[in-house]
Amino acid sequence: MNKILKNYWFVILVGLVFLGGIVYFISDGLSGVASAKQIDGKDIAFSINDVNYTADELYDELEPQMANNLLVMAFEQNVIGQTVELTEDQKTDARLQAEELWTSYQSQLGDLAESIMDTAMQSIGFIDHTHLSEYFEFMTARQMIIDNYFEENFDIIWPQYEETYSPRFVSHIIVNIEDFDNITKEEQDRMDEIDRQLNNNEAFAEVAKEFSQDGAASAGGSLGFVTKDSSLVEEFLEVALKLNAGEVSDWVESEFGFHRIKVDSTSYEDMKGNEEFEQSLSTAFPQVTANAIWQEAEKLDIDYHGDQELEQRIKSTLGVGSIEKSDEE
Q1: What is this structure's pTM?
Q2: 162-270: which CATH topology?
Q3: Please, which residues bridge with residue 134 across strands?
Q4: Regions in the chain scoring below 50 on pLDDT
Q5: Distance of alpha carbon 179 from alpha carbon 192, whole angstroms
Q6: Residue 316 forms beta bridges with which residues?
Q7: Could you tell me which residues are beta bridge partners of residue 258?
Q8: What's the distance, Cα to Cα, between the start and end of the chain in Å?
Q9: Under a CB-based contact definition with an 8 Å cutoff, are residues 254 and 235 in contact?
Q10: Minimal CB count within 10 Å: which of 43, 97, 222, 233?
Q11: Residue 82's Cα: distance from chain center in Å?
Q12: Which strands sit side by side in the sheet containing 257-265, from one edge to the other?
């Protein structure tokens, strides 16, 4: 969970800075460029295939989207704030993450850090950079709600995900081959010794640490989380997806050398909390996050004062819907 926050804070915050700052770019940025094109006195924001789009047209497109996004952000923060109570350890962890992030941000942006971060924080409903710890608390609580929803709907979601993506943890031992038509004695001896130790039931990870010839060797050959969509060479991935948990392949040839491949686990319990797994699951079932938030909101008996349009806007922007695989995958 913590690694996910560290990986995605920049996307979340800077993406919102862009949306918040587009108005400034349109109204002030273009006017300061001598070569900026105009038609009928209106600034041209961009052109595609010789078709011009004005700043006004771009803003008109973005304004409703920005308004809906800000509405949903406020909605989520209020729902989560009334639903989840964090432990002191979780709050401490959020504070430490905020301090680490702010230090990193300052080192990257220097004097600009405060103004950029303040703009970003305000865009998502927080006062300024001094409230970063609150942002991390919010994200921690949000993930807890999502995790709970997944657990409650495990029997619906997991079988679909497992069948479609074949998630697993994979390790390998690789022997680099310089010329596949002329394997050297040293290369063959290394492969033979690996076979001997594995046949004698030596631990795969220990054999990998001693003999494997890539960066994963120090981690016992672990390549981490793998699915059918992983960016691995075809020959390797095909075998890795066919193995059951605990099984080890024969030698598999790829452009990089010869591999012995092991599937360490296909268990959800082992994947739980893994950042790549959670990202993959979220991509496959984008409705899970929306449904999780909406489910908690319904428990609060929120009064929309008869404004059905407002309620529908929130549901639509959130993306509430049936739990089905994403058509994009």
Answers
A1: 0.69
A2: Chitinase A; domain 3 (3.10.50)
A3: none
A4: 1-36, 45-48, 58, 326-329
A5: 18
A6: none
A7: 175, 253
A8: 23
A9: yes
A10: 233
A11: 26
A12: 222-226, 168-176, 257-265, 252-254
CA distance 75 to 101: 25
Residues carrying CATH 3.10.50.40, the chain: 162-270
Count, residues in the chain:
329
Q: Measured on CA atoms in the order 83, 87, 90, 95, is the torsion positive or negative?
A: positive
Q: Give the integer Cα–Cα distance in Å for 271 and 155.
A: 16
Q: Which residues of 31-66 are buried (b: 16+ CB within 10 A; e: fewer)?
A: eeeeeeeeeeeebbbeeeeeeeebbeebbeeeeeeb
Q: How would DSSP label each residue in 227-286?
A: -TTS---HHHHHHHHHSPTT-B---EEETTEEEEEEEEE--HHHHTT-HHHHHHHHHH-T
Q: Which tokens is 279 given? A: 């990202």
Tokens encoding 45 = 């924001």
Q: What's the burial of 140, exposed, middle or buried (CB within 10 Å: 0-12/13-18/19+)?
A: buried
List pLDDT tens digits, range 159-188.
Answer: 999 999 999 999 999 999 999 999 999 999
For residue 10, what pLDDT is reported? Answer: 41
Other Cβ atoms within 10 Å of 26 Cβ, number? 18
CB 44, CB 54: distance < 8 Å: yes
Looking at residue 13, its pLDDT comes to 46
b or e along 196-207 (b: 16 or more beta carbons within 10 Å of the residue's beta carbon)?
ebbeeeeebbeb
Distance CA 208, CA 114 (A): 46
* Three-class secondary structure of residue 160 per DSSP: helix
Q: How many CA atoms lie within 13 A of 212 on its CB side?
A: 25
**How far is the C-alpha of 215 from the C-alpha of 17, rounded, in Å?**
37
Which two tokens mark 311?
């309620």
* Mutual angle of helices 2-24 and 132-152, in 10-degree steps: 120
